[in-house]
Write a structure and sequence with these properties.
Chain lengths: 257, 230
């Protein structure tokens, strides 16, 4: 594919790009209406929230139960590997043929299902690993104190695993917000539509506005879950720990795989 | 992949099917070309990403205070959705290979730097002391002892980076680069199932193949890990 590249002018046009971006972003008319920025932003957030909630419902309970029994290690490793190998663009693109084949139509739900598929593996893996790796001594102490298995799960294992569980939700959520952008290619209007239309109409202001808002939304999502993690696990902050690089963060999980 | 079946034999198999085998048979050349492009884009990104990450990891190891800012910056790059990152770059660097590779390389940095530093940090102090005691110079110890013992962790990072990159290369089709994404994009633009299904299936297969290949590489590079397991 050879596309006429609007480069070379790069150096000189930087101020031009900036003002194009700024004027698109700050023009009130661009924000209102059915396909205005506000509506697209709401749709983007809506589909992301629904997808993350559905994925959490599907992934976390089985992962906690499997982690509790300390079985299913092979299943967990397979989920990690398959999850990592699923290219998000390919999964979103498959929405089109699948929907056409089974006459499901396009738009919110097909895109949402694809997002759920992508969100399940990180949540499942982290919840499973987190519960499985709870200190056996702690679990034994809980059993020795007469806790029923249900209470061991809800009062001991889940709280101890919560940093990893929340990390899994965070990784999934950021991925969902990022991938929802691609929904614009399969008929779901969201912030990605600004980017896709910006490309098509060679409208750099629109393109950059879309890119900017998508990037901000991802970073806000990441920051939000980091905050949730801090608030939900106050005991981790109390004694100042030595920095342990990459233990509870996403790539670290793969160290075990 | 199942070999192409002539459309005559499967009367119901046609352009509207989930996958139209006759089209696949007619386009094997194009599919192969896209495979080569996909692998090229991936390899360039990984080689450049590995080189840049090595430099960053060495800086972070030598000057500890730089670790947090380096991984923080890489983390911000990592969190920016690929389409948005490409959209930022296109007005500046155009719909070019350079744009695609800048994006792809950015996404490898966080994973690689973090695993390189964690790998070196994981070398037991006693092993370092032993090497020092045997008269290794610091640089030679780093290359012959530290880096070697860090290999499993570093290869684990390369595996994640490689698989992630294979997936992201499909997105570069949206900025005019090739790879399986070009097949997907072609199918999306004219609502034609077959190239979408072929492109998606092959990019998943390629990601899995790369992962397996690197597992093999890890075993070859760390023979002692296998010996110790018995």
């Amino acid at each position: 594919m050879s596309v006429p590249a609007p480069l070379l002018a790069a150096g000189d046009s930087d101020p031009g790009l900036w003002s194009e971006f700024w004027s698109y972003l700050t023009t009130a008319d661009n924000w209102t209406g059915d396909r205005g920025i506000a509506a697209l932003l709401v749709a983007h957030v809506q589909i992301s929230v629904v997808a993350v909630l559905l994925a959490a419902a599907v992934a976390i309970v089985p992962a906690v139960l499997l982690g509790h029994t300390r079985r299913g290690a092979f299943l967990a490793v397979s989920v990690v590997n398959i999850g990592r190998a699923l290219p998000s663009f390919a999964i979103i693109a498959l929405v089109l043929p699948v929907s056409l084949e089974w006459g499901l139509g396009l738009g919110f739900w097909p895109t949402c299902v694809a997002l759920v598929l992508l969100a399940v593996p990180p949540m499942f893996t982290n919840a499973y690993t987190g519960v499985r790796d709870v200190d056996p001594g702690t679990v034994e102490a809980a059993v020795g104190m007469g806790m029923t298995p249900t209470r061991v799960v809800t009062r001991v294992e889940v709280p101890n695993a919560s940093p990893l569980i929340i990390t899994g939700v965070r990784v999934s959520a950021v991925q969902v917000v990022a991938t929802a952008t691609l929904g614009a290619l399969v008929g779901f209007s969201c912030l990605g539509s600004l980017i896709v239309e910006g490309f098509a109409q060679q409208n750099d202001g629109k393109l950059l506005t879309g890119a900017f808002l998508v990037a901000v939304l991802s970073l806000v999502t990441e920051a939000f879950f980091s905050l949730v993690q801090r608030l939900a696990t106050p005991w981790l902050r109390a004694p100042r720990r030595r920095a342990r690089p990459a233990r509870s963060d996403p790539p670290a999980v793969a160290l075990d795989a | 992949m199942t070999p192409a079946v002539p459309g005559v034999l499967l009367a119901e198999n046609g352009p509207d099917s989930f996958i139209w085998w006759a089209w696949v048979g007619d386009h094997l050349d194009e599919i192969w070309e896209r495979t080569v492009q996909h692998v090229q884009l991936t390899v360039i990104a990984l080689v450049v990403g590995f080189a840049v990450s090595t430099v960053l990891a060495l800086i972070a190891l030598r000057f500890r205070r730089t670790y947090t800012p380096i991984t923080g910056f890489a983390g911000v790059l990592y969190a920016i959705p690929s389409l948005a990152l490409f959209a930022f770059l296109v007005p500046i660097t155009g719909l070019s290979l350079l744009t695609a590779e800048i994006g792809l390389v950015s996404y490898t940095l966080l994973i690689l730097v973090r695993n390189m530093v964690a790998g070196i940090d994981g070398v037991p102090a006693a092993v370092r002391e032993a090497a020092d005691g045997m008269g290794y110079t610091p640089w030679r110890r780093f290359v012959a002892v530290d880096a070697r013992l860090a290999t499993p962790t570093i290869v684990a990072g390369v595996r994640i980076a490689a698989v992630t990159t294979v997936g992201l290369v499909t997105v570069t089709a949206l900025i005019g680069q090739g790879g399986y994404g070009a097949l997907i994009n072609d199918g999306l633009s004219r609502s034609f199932n077959t190239p979408i299904v072929v492109g998606a299936a092959l990019s998943i297969l390629l990601a899995m193949a790369v992962d397996l290949l690197l597992v093999g590489a890890e075993r070859l590079l760390t023979p002692w890990a296998r010996a110790g397991r018995r």
